[in-house]
Each structure stands twice: as structure tokens, then as C-alpha cells.
Amino acid sequence: MSLTRIRGAAVYDPANGIDGVRRDIIIRDGRIVDHAQSESIPPERDFDASGMIVMAGGIDLHSHIGGGKTNLSRLLLPEDHRNDARAVPDKPGEGRYMRLPSCGTCAPGTLATGYRYAEMGYTAAFEPAMVASNARHTHLEMGDTPIIDHGAYVMMGNDELFLQMLAAKEDFERMRDYVGWTIDANKALGVKVVNPGGISAFKFNQRSLDLDEAHVHYGIAPRDVLRTLTRALSELRVPHPLHVHASNLGVPGNVQSTLATMDASDGLPIHLTHIQFHSYGTEGPLKFSSGARAIAEAVNARPNVTIDVGQIIFGQTVSASGDTMMQFRNAPLARPRKWILGDIECDGGCGVVPFRYREQSFVNALQWIIGLEIFLLVDDPWRVSMTTDHPNGGPFTSYPHLIRLLMDKPFRDEQLDKLNADAKAASVLSEITRELSLYEIAIITRAGPARLLGLADRGHLGAGAAADIAVYREDADRERMFTSPAFVFKDGELIARDGTLLQTPAGGIHFVTPDYDRAIEQRVRDYTDANLAGRFENIAIGDDEMCTVCNGGKLLPVACERR
Amino acid sequence: MLTASLEALNTTCPRLTRSLATFTSKDATKKPQINGQDTDLTTALSEAAKILEQARRPLFSGLATDIAGARALYDLAAHSGAILDHLHGDVLAASTLALQDRGAFFTTLSEIRSRADLIVVIACEPSRCYPRFYERVLNPQTDIVFVGCDTDPAASTNAKAILPNTDPFDILALWSALTEGRNANALGDAKTAQQLEALLERIHTAHYTAFVYEPGTLPAPHAALAIEAINRIVKTINRTTRAGTLALTGDDGALSVNQTVTWLSGFPLRTRVAYGVPLEHDSHRYRTDDLLRRKEIDALLWISSFGPEPLPSSLPDDVPTIILGHPATTHAARNASTVFIPVATPGIDSNGHLFRVDASVVVPLVAARDTALPTVAAIASELVRARRPQ
């Protein structure tokens, strides 16, 4: 097998402590190796990257790329697809048959999703809200998302069986086994809880549910759900902490329940996702203010807490969430004025509300500011991941723009000046001088997410790592620099050059298989027979079936090891 | 060849029984045909490839296949510059248009079974096309009210009917006004309005109401407006109490193929797919019957892997046609070149995946017998290979 070499680039590899050191990267059989060991390197596989910057491929740990609500978003917004300037890419160097037709800006088809992530130097993205009953659909869509690796967090904590067991105070070990079984049966990489207990409560006509408030039917509180799930994941040794979409999304004043949510895990690891949407105070004349400083200080003080931001980007997008309780409240804000809501299979729900973030809106401008404040006020970049909660805050294709906002203070100020003046006046953003370095960007976009997901051989460039690599041309305009890398490698193969795709292999699927007592299956079977319309035998997805579902992508099991 | 007779287990579902009766032990030996003459698969594939090669504006319709079939056909469509529509394209289009214009408020089978204490059936008889509907969703506590139709004989004794002979559009108009707080006595048809008002009160005392409708039985050609109205009423009701809609539709792979094409491309069915030009989606323009009648297409790829579906009556005799069909498919002699390739039925001859009627659950199918019939996906992939420059 021949070697590949990337010569002379400055390496940013935070997982191995390498900050801009010029060195060659050698690849053999899709993996990075230390030495060429006197083997010759064919000239066509010897890439001159002098003056360039090399990082591991980008990893998006929270992006709604597949499953029911994503497809409903596509169905809802034909106008989004018709307005897609990139529907037919102008890439003369690309073969006619390189890209299957696929379009959309905020809700692109799976094919366009894979192509666009890859040409941007991203090599993995994770669907954070897989409804268990919708798992096959989710995996089918991710299987049709080319090039990038993928995986999903299964939603728990609103499924009736979990809530029944919790309300009946069943043994923790049984609940832990149920969590393990759910992960295993649905080929998940982790567990997400959305508005703990709140999706279920909405089905019982409850319209709000605070962290310590009782679920109207089961009597349990969201805090009980969080405590049980974080402990279960810890005991199952699932690498990714509980992925929490906290209570009260979007509600002014929710900063209080968000801070309390951080402590609901009793010190165990907990990941608060799209925390921007949960960092709102009630100060000021409009009773809406930034809670970013309080949130950042709390994160800084709690080493068990990790976050991703959910930055908003101005323009048209669509919010697709499992949080039916909150999406129903948001529905009157839909632009254009149409929306979808649904209750799903006694284990989840979905709400799809198109949204247009406007620079002149006080609330939207402040949301934008809050997101950036959080990025810049949290000290430890290893505990912040870069997300726009695609597409809820904005499409993932905004990442290069977001990177520039974080790296370039004058550019940030310029954008800030375009916003609603009251929002600007109410914020401390203009006083924050921090500019993230390339090293820090490499942490929040690849090394950090990889570590947080337990992907030992991704997100870094050390020997043994999978050769998922992005090589960027140095450019003072960081947006341009991060938009089309000079070279993108996936598992050692060059798949894109300056935004032109060269190959579109199927991506692999990351998942965990935790140890649990299979006796729990009887409990799930009994519950299924008594309550659900489907059959227990049809729930679990087997390995062989998974290969078909994922379009022949590699199965990439992730080890469950003690954190 | 082993072809044990197929029989349904644990159910007397008449639709399943009818369907199983179309399969015989001769299926396994059924040969492809060109213009009615038996041939081998290689020759048939080569003739089919020639038809697609020469077509400038082919139509892929029927599309009665599973998710794997839809995936492979999408690839073939891009290579052929084809328009995609389904056997049930009109019904599908009504649902699509209503969704694109206003959205929806839906629920699923298990939610209804475990939660609904009231089911409101609007202008349809679920058991006619969905014989196992009540078995899936009913619990002993559920009441059923039929609106705009008679009670379904298959429904339980907790069923009653109101306004059986009233036009569905009149019902939905009055009902919309009532849900927004209008007084029944102030409305034009107060007698009808009063009955609906009583139903609305019943809905407000229920814990959870499921609204069930069948897009295929709503009055054409404006079923989309009725679907929109039903979902609008349910959205309004949800301001104070809980409810959701369930559409009984998506047969013969309609739902599965529509979902798959939507996630791949961004657009649902009735879309033209071609390399190098923007995808074009138009629920009105890309209707199979109109395209055929107006002679807008120059080749048809007709897919019916679940049952022997006749070719569309609007198909001009001079349009070359490829049929990927159930082995029992027959067609009359035609002027234009006609290739028939018998294919596997998902769940009978091959494994597969289909969306369940409520669009949230994908059900795995397992082959029930062992025949060598190729899948739609396999044939479509072969045709892509033939088409693609090496």
C-alpha cells in the first residue's frame, strides 16, 4: 500500500499539544503514521502544503442532518430549495457525475449536506435528536449523507416507559439497563434529553415545565430525569455525557433553570447543548437580556460541564426540534407562516417552525450577541464546541463566517454595528477583546468534539488516527480560508481540492454498545405489547441490517470506557 | 426452486389475503420479456438501457417499491433526466401541497392507541383500505365519532356518526369558524353548526383526540384544501386541549419513496432530476396522466413491485416502456418497444424497508420465500452502470 504525504504545512493538533509547528503528515492505509520508514512516496500522493495550515477534519457534534423532523423541514420549505444558489455548483473541475442533484440552504437534501460539509473540511457530523421509534429513518438518511462519518444520540427521558419506571421508583439498575438497551437497539452514540419530561407533559396538555416542577401525570420532576440519565450513562461508561437540551428553551429568564440544570447531574459529566437559547435574562425595558456572563462563569467553575453554543446567524432558517412544548409556543413566530408539530409513538415529538433572524430585531440581535459572548467568555475551549444547532440557529455552511467572527475583533465590531442599536447598547460584546487563535479554533471544531464523543482516533493528527484531514490556505480573511480548504482527506483519500469534490465515498457510523443486563428486554417487550402499535421484534437494528441502512458505510464502534 | 405457498399468520386481513393470492409458485421461473416474447435478463436489461439512452424526457412512474428501490432509482433518474411520480401521485400531491402551504399537526398510531380517548373520523371508512386500523389503534376506552360519513361497520360499538350526508367542505368551513369561537346559532347552517359545536365540546372534555382522514377519499380535485382545513382546525384546538391528525395514506410505497426522494434531493415527488440542471418540483405540472396525455414524455419506466398494476390508460401506444413489475403483471401488445422485467416484491421475495402509514416508523421487511427474482434496486443499479461512462 502506498504512502501519502502532506508536506510543509503548519500543524494545529491540540489533542497532541502541537500549535502551529511545521511538519510533514504521513498516511498509510488510511491512518496517520509517524515515519515513512524509507518507503517511497508516489509523486501524485505527495502534497506540497508549504505555507498552508493543517488540522484534523472538522467534527460537528450537534447538527440536525437526518430523521423525521429534518425531512419534514425539507417538505415544508420548497422555497428554500428553489432559492438555493448552490443547487447546481459551478465546479468546472468536477466530473459531471460527481454530485447527484440535491439542494436546499437551511434544509438541504442529505446529498448536498454531505458534499457541503466535506468541501468545507468537515469529516463528521452527529444527529443529536434521534427519536427511538424513528431510528431506522434517521440512520437511512445519515447513510445517504455522503463522505462524512455520522452517528446519533437517541432521545430519552420523555419516553413513557422511562417516566413510568421513574414514577414507580423502580430500581436504578433496571433503568440503567433500559438506557443501555435503548442505546444498543437503536445504534446510538449517546443519549440526549430534550426538555426533560416536557415533551411527554405536553401530551398531557401541560404547557410549561420548570426544572423542579412536577410532570402533571407522572409527578416526577425534570431534575429526577437528569439525575437518573447522567448516572446511567456514567455507569454504562458511555463516553459522551448526557446531551441536554434544557428546560425553558427561548424563555426570557431561563438562565436560572439552565444554571440549576448544570448541577442536576450531582457533579457527573453533563453537556448542555445550544446553550445560547437557554441563556436569557429578564433585565432591561424589554425584559430580555443576556445571561451569557452568568452562564460562562458557571461553566468556568464546573469542570464536569461542557457546552455547545447554538450560535444564531441572520437570515432565513428553520427550527426543527423535539421540544414540542416550546415549539408550539414559538409557532406564532413562524416566518413564513406555516409550521408542523407532532406527537410521536409515546417516546418523542417534533416541532418544525421556519424562522427568519433579523439584524434589526432587538431579540434576534441579542441572541446573536449572547452566542458570541458565551464563546468568548468561557475560558476552556475544550469544553465549548462550535455549533449553530444546524439548522435551528443557522445552516452549518455558516461555520466559516462564525470562525471569522470569533477570530477577528474588527470584523466582529463591524457586524455588531449593523445590529439593532438597543441590543448593542445592552451588551458587553464590544468590550470583549478576545480573538480565538487557530489552535483554539482547532479545539472547538474538532479536537474538543472528538474527545467529548470518545472518538479516540478522530479529531487529531497523531500516529494511529484516521487520516481525516483538512489543509487550508493561509488567508487573513478567515471566512474565505475556512470555506474551501486546499485539500480534504477522508480516511487517507483526497476527496476535495479547493472546494472541488474528487470522490464521494459512503461515510461510516459511530455508535456504542454498552454492557447491560438483557433481562430488561422482557420489560420493554411487555410494555410494547400493551401500549404500542408496533412489535418488539421490529425495534432493534441488527449489524447486518445496519450495513444496508447505512448504504455500506463502515460500522465504527466506539469503546465504552470509564471516563 | 423452493416456493412454499404463502400464508398470513395471526390475521385474517382481507387486503393481505388478496395480495398473497397474486403470488404463485410460477413466479420464480417467470422470464423477462421484450414485446411479449420471453428473453433472458441480460438482453432485457440491454433493451431497457437502450430505451433510456434514447429518451430525452423519460418519466419514472408507478414507483411502487421500497426505500432501497427509491435510492437506486434516484441515481438512475439523475442519469436519465427523469421526472418522478407515483401510482398514487394525486393523493400524495394533495398532502404535499397542504403541508407546503400551511404545515400540519400530526400524531402516530401508538400515541392514539395509548392516549386517545376520542377518535374523530372525517369522511372516510378506514377499514375499507386499512382493515387492521382498529386493531392497531383502539383501546377499550376510546369513543369514535364519524363526521361526514356513516359509521364504519368494522368499528366498535362506541361509535356514532354525525352529518353523514353533509359535504365535507361545508363541515370543515363551519367547524373552522366554531373553533375560532364563532357562535353556532350565528352561522348560516345553524343546525349543522350545532352538531359540530356539540362535538367540539366533547373534544374539549377529552384528554386527547385523534383526527383520522383519508386523503384519497376527500373530494378531488381540491383535497388539499380539505387537508389544510383539518390541520388548521386541529392546530386551533391545540391552543387549549390536545389533539393530532393521522392521515391514512401512502400505500404501495408512496410514503416511502416520497420520503426517500425528499431526503436525497430536498424535494418530494413530482420532481425532475437531472445532472447539471436545477431540480424542478411541481405537483401540478409533473402529473403522470397529464404528461402522458400531452405526449410530453418519450419513455416510461413503470415500477410496480407490490402487485400487478396495469400500465396507465393514458400511455400513448408509441412511447417505449420498461416495466419492473410483479411477476403476474401482464400488458396488451404495444406498438413501441416494451420491456418487462419481473422483480422481487419486498417482504415476499426480498428484505426491505417501508415507512408505516403514520410516517414516523420505518418497518423492516423480511423475505418470506426464496426466489431468484431481482430487486428493483438491483435492476436500477444495473441500468445506472449501463448508462454511466466507464
Structural write-up:
The complex is a heterodimer of chains A (563) and B (390). By secondary structure, chain A is α/β, with parallel strands linked by helices. Chain A folds into two domains: 1-50 and 454-501, Urease, subunit C, domain 1; 58-77 and 105-117 and 125-453, TIM Barrel. Helix content of chain A is 32%, strand content 21%. Chain A is built from 19 helices and 26 strands. In chain A, helix 13 packs across helix 14. Chain B has 390 residues and is of the alpha/beta class. Chain B has two domains: 22-88 and 252-387, Rossmann fold; 93-249, Dimethylsulfoxide Reductase, domain 2, CATH 3.40.228.10. Chain B has helices at residues 14-20, 41-54, 67-80, 89-102, 109-115, 126-129, 133-137, 168-179, 190-205, 223-237, 254-265, 288-293, 376-387; strands at residues 33-34, 37-38, 58-64, 82-84, 103-106, 118-122, 143-147, 159-162, 208-213, 242-247, 271-273, 280-281, 299-304, 321-325, 338-342, 352-355, 362-365. Chain B is globular. The mean pLDDT of chain B is 96. Strand 18 (339-344) of chain A pairs parallel with strand 5 of chain B.
Task: Describe what is shown at a glance.
The complex is a heterodimer of chains A (563) and B (390). Chain A is an alpha/beta fold and 563 residues long. In chain A, strands 8-9-10-11-12-13-16-20 form an eight-stranded parallel sheet, sandwiched between helices. A seven-stranded mixed sheet of chain A has the order 3-2-7-21-22-23-24, with helices on one face.
* Coarse structural class of chain A: alpha/beta
How large is the share of residues in beta strands of chain B? 15-25%
Discrete helix count of chain B = 13
Strand content of chain A: 15-25%
Q: Which CATH first-tier class of the largest domain in chain A would you pick? A: Alpha Beta
Got a strand count of chain B? Answer: 17
Instruction: Look at the structure and give the CATH class of the largest domain in chain B.
Output: Alpha Beta
Overall geometry of chain B comes to globular
Strands of chain A, count: 26
Which class best fits the helix and strand makeup of chain B?
A: alpha/beta
Report the CATH topology name of the largest domain in chain A.
Answer: TIM Barrel
Number of domain units of chain A: 2
Distance between the termini of chain B: 36 Å
Shape of chain A: globular
Radius of gyration of chain B equals 23 Å
Largest sheet of chain B: 9 strands, mixed
**How widely separated are the two ends of chain A?**
36 Å
**Main beta-sheet annotation of chain A:** 8 strands, parallel
